[in-house]
């Protein structure tokens, strides 16, 4: 934080425009239009405008530290760039497959708190979970026998305290890999095997 950040892009069609500022903060989170949470975002006050998106954010040595992504309007100087580590990861998959693949299990849900007695009794890793409110027909969740009202609390030993945590788990590497899903059904804690599938393309 505080180091010089230089943004390059074509705002409003003005080609090769350079703006400068500083790195305002690291490790920010930003919610995409799809609803997914993007972690480890760089916040900068280098001026970004429409046309800067996709351009590089570089340091004073000319090293790319991020990819310009978004601004908050009508605020001034609150701009965001995806960190270079995330950009490398995404670029690798695009070069390999031409697309970013994600897995899904086919549930609609919402975050719910868990009573302290339930957490203690079942020795749960978190005090919240994901309440299943809908299940897509023919989805991995439907085949695994999930029901409306189930509360997802763990998957492959990792806590699932929120929908964002579930999204983060369902990466491309999970496609067709059996996973153990721990859930609460009424007062009972149970585990089911689920096999995430590739998320269908959005129409």
How would you describe the overall organization of this protein?
The chain is α+β, with helices and mostly antiparallel strands and 203 residues long. The chain is 16% helix and 42% strand. The protein has four helices and 14 strands. The chain has helices at residues 84-97, 116-122, 140-144, 163-169; strands spanning 4-9, 17-31, 37-44, 56-58, 64-71, 79-83, 103-104, 107-113, 128-135, 151-155, 158-159, 179-185, 188-194, 197-198. It has a six-stranded antiparallel β-barrel with strand order 1-2-3-6-5-4. Strands 8, 9, 10, 11, 12 and 13 form a six-stranded antiparallel sheet that branches. The chain is elongated, with a radius of gyration of 21 Å. The mean pLDDT is 91.
Number of strands: 14
Please work out how many helical segments DSSP would assign.
Answer: 4
The radius of gyration over CA amounts to: 21 Å
How much strand content do the residues show? Answer: 35-45%
Give, in spatial order, the strands making up the sheet with the most strands: 1-2-3-6-5-4
Largest sheet: 6 strands, antiparallel, barrel
The helicity comes to 10-25%
Contiguous runs where pLDDT drops below 50 for at least 5 residues: none
Assign the structural class, choosing from mainly alpha, mainly beta, alpha/beta, alpha+beta, or little secondary structure: alpha+beta
What is the terminal separation in angstroms?
A: 40 Å
């Amino acid at each position: 934080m505080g180091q010089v950040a230089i943004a390059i892009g074509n705002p409003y069609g003005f080609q090769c425009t350079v703006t400068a500022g500083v790195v305002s903060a690291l490790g920010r989170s930003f919610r995409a239009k799809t609803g997914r949470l993007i972690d480890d975002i760089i916040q900068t006050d280098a001026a970004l405008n429409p046309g800067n998106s996709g351009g590089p954010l570089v340091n004073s040595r000319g090293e790319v530290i991020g990819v310009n992504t978004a601004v908050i309007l009508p605020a001034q100087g609150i701009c965001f760039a995806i960190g270079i580590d995330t950009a490398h990861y995404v670029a690798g998959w695009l070069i390999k497959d031409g697309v970013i693949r994600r897995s899904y299990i086919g549930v609609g849900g919402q975050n719910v708190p868990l009573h302290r007695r339930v957490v203690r009794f079942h020795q749960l890793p978190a005090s919240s979970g994901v309440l299943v409110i809908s299940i897509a027909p023919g989805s991995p969740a439907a085949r695994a026998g999930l029901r409306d009202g189930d509360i997802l609390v763990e998957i492959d030993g990792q806590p699932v305290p929120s929908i964002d945590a579930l999204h983060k788990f369902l990466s491309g590497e999970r496609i067709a890999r059996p996973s153990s899903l721990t859930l609460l059904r009424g007062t009972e804690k149970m585990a089911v095997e689920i096999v995430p599938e590739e998320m269908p393309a959005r129409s």
